[in-house]
Automatic annotation (TrEMBL):
Gene source species: Nonomuraea muscovyensis
All residue ranges annotated as the ABC transporter domain in the record: 20-261
Family to which the UniProt record says this protein belongs: Belongs to the ABC transporter superfamily.
Single GO biological process annotation from the record: transmembrane transport
PANTHER family assigned to the protein according to its UniProt record, in alphabetical order: D,D-DIPEPTIDE TRANSPORT ATP-BINDING PROTEIN DDPF-RELATED, TRANSPORT ATP-BINDING PROTEIN
UniProt keywords, alphabetically: ATP-binding, Nucleotide-binding, Transport
The name this protein goes by in its record: Peptide/nickel transport system ATP-binding protein
Gene3D superfamilies, sorted: P-loop containing nucleotide triphosphate hydrolases
A Gene Ontology molecular function term of the record: ATP hydrolysis activity
PROSITE patterns referenced in this protein's UniProt entry, alphabetically: ABC_TRANSPORTER_1, ABC_TRANSPORTER_2
Length: 338
């Protein structure tokens, strides 16, 4: 890591300092002779002991953003900062960083080697980092992940475990390095409904007991409601709404957030989005959501006098601030008139 210290660090909803931050982040890939803007200007901050949910449809860029925050992808421009210091991509610096920021994948069967015992799987990280007292570290990590007594699981193989137990082994592998931040990519998507609640409760307990921070990547706003302190809604490479989870999910201002919420069982009205998210090599002008926007299609944007702006005037990139905010011409006019 460099010694460059971030200035004017954003704060979390309760005034604490930022731990992990994306600052004006852009990530592009070559695609069919064009440049795909997978992450197209993102500011995002996670504070100590805070859980932030990153929500959006498949293809919106949230997994690319998560991989970039882990140092697995290099940004085209902008920066990743940890503890106020810009991430360095030298191998030694990345190795030290990944001890602090650990990944938890959605598919435990895919991330666990079927030929490795549970002990070997959890011990892999400590061995890479040359940590002493390996057996004690593995036992402690398994116990903290809810696999007790840990010695009972040492010699088991992944196929001998339930889905929930396998996910706990994956979490234990992350905990073995005593990280400060977990980045969990759809951590319960592959689990039965009966087990999902147990894993979410485990993540909350780790936050309370160890002070862990987490960025939870999900398409499920119901999961965000149950686990997160703050939520960031992503569409076509950019955060379009963010803020405290209760405020955003009880009074969503962006039409995209409203549509995502409408699929929940308790939603009074279903919003059906037409089409798929646009090609990230051809991001539309104006509001990037306007081609699928139910507010524009219904005529409400025209009644508010913003339909032309929706189609032609780009919206500013949202800053990483704790207050609720939305990148939407219609929402901005509605708030000004309220």
């Amino acid at each position: 890591m460099t010694e460059t210290q971030a200035s004017a660090e954003p704060v979390t909803a309760d005034g604490r300092s930022t731990l992990l931050e994306a600052r004006d982040l852009h990530v592009e890939f070559a695609a069919r002779g064009r440049r795909a803007r997978a992450v197209d200007g993102v500011n995002l901050a996670v504070g100590p002991g805070e859980i932030v949910a990153l929500v959006g449809e498949s293809g919106c860029g949230k997994t690319t953003l998560a991989r970039t925050l882990l140092g697995l992808e290099r940004p085209t421009s902008g920066s990743v900062r940890y503890g106020g210091t810009e991430l360095s991509y030298r191998s030694r610096a990345l190795k030290a960083y990944r001890r602090e920021v650990q990944l938890v994948l959605q598919d435990p069967m895919g991330s666990l080697n079927p030929r490795q015992t549970v002990y070997e799987a959890v011990a892999e990280g400590p061995r890479i980092h040359g940590l002493p007292d390996e057996r004690e570290i593995v036992a402690s990590a398994l116990a903290r992940a809810g696999l007790r007594p840990p010695e009972r699981f040492f010699l088991r193989y992944p196929h001998e475990l339930s889905g929930g137990q396998r996910q706990r082994v994956v979490i234990a592998g992350a905990l073995a390095l005593d990280p400060k931040v977990l980045i969990a990519d759809e951590p319960v998507a592959s689990l039965d409904a009966s087990v999902r609640g147990e894993i979410l409760a485990l993540l909350l307990r780790l936050r309370d007991d160890l002070g862990l921070s987490a960025l939870v990547v999900t398409h499920d706003l119901g999961l965000a409601w149950n686990i997160a302190d703050r939520v960031a809604v992503m569409y076509l490479g950019r955060i379009v709404e963010s803020g405290p989870v209760e405020q955003v999910l009880t009074a969503p201002r962006h039409p995209y957030t409203q549509a995502l919420l409408s699929v929940l069982p308790e939603s009074p009205e279903r919003v059906v989005l037409t089409g798929e998210p646009p090609d990230p090599t051809r991001i539309p002008g104006g509001c990037r959501f306007h081609a699928r926007c139910q507010v524009l299609a219904s005529g409400r944007a025209a009644e508010a006098g913003v339909d032309g702006r929706c189609r032609s005037e780009p919206l500013a990139v949202l800053p990483a601030v704790p207050a609720a905010q939305a990148a939407c011409h219609y929402a901005q006019v509605a708030e000004a008139d309220a």
